[in-house]
Specification:
Length: 162
Amino acid sequence: MNATTTMPTPIGPLRLTATPRGLARVEFLARSTDRRGTRGTAQARAHLGRAVRQLREYFAGRRKAFNLALDLQGDAHQLRVWQELLAIPFGQTASYGQVAKRVGSPLGARAVGRACATNPLPVVVPCHRVVGSDGSLHGFGGGLWRKRALLEHEGHGLPFPR
């Protein structure tokens, strides 16, 4: 049984879902909703608790990398792209074309963009670190303002303003 919770963040509320295997979803919400979580299994609740703690540390400027069990579900291409996104260090970016080359699809920048758009774990699997070849910001499921805010946060390593 899955466990869910909603947590406030400087970029708006996030709904987190964990399975017994790990964190499965991070969703941007337009506004705060009920913060009570669903019950879930003990394993799912434990994964959820670790995710909430680490996301709080990240937004406070005390964490640069997540150490979480992830339950990523996708096709082979999506999984390759998402694994490559996890390798982009805090404070750095890569272009869609660079990621495509790294996953063995040198002409697949658009396919990388589609995989980023379907990333079930934004922030944790840092699709916000993927930018255009000229450094410009392109689509982000949470809105470009959130992508910019995350990149600015990581570029300075400072907590978000309160």
